[in-house]
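Quarterly update, task 2.4: heme C-bound model.
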Amino acid sequence: MRRLIVLAAAVASASSLLGAADAALIERGKAEEKRCVGCHSLTIIGSQRLSKTGWERELDKMVRWGSDIKDREALMAYLVATYGDGKPMPKPTLSADASASK
Ligand code: HEC
């Protein structure tokens, strides 16, 4: 029984360490994203919901178009965690008086 408790504690602390490492990576990715604004706003990024493969392709495309990504691993972790295809879609933005389509 005691062995089981020790094992459970070891598993719990290992997974919280992993969580901290992930959080640091994602923070780094968020900083890297700020470097994308040379050509467009961050809104164009945050309005996407893509799978990991989708984000890999998107970054490949941005690199082909001239984007210089320094910390791709962190950026990928951030994009997938924040704008992955499992995340809810953002609210659509309306015109100031919301009457443009009337
Ligand atoms: C060299 C210029 C340039 C840089 C730097 C750049 N992009 Fe783009 N990106 C573009 C252009 C051009 C478009 C198309 C804009 C449009 O359709 O209005 C675009 C569009 C996008 C889109 C919308 C989907 C699409 O493919 O049209 C996403 C998402 C995106 N960029 C992500 C990024 C990310 C993430 C970075 C930072 C790593 C980045 N971009 C940096 C040029 C750039």
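Highlight for this quarter: Residues 36, 38-40, 44-45, 48, 58-59, 61-62, 65-67, 69 surround heme C (CB under 6 Å).
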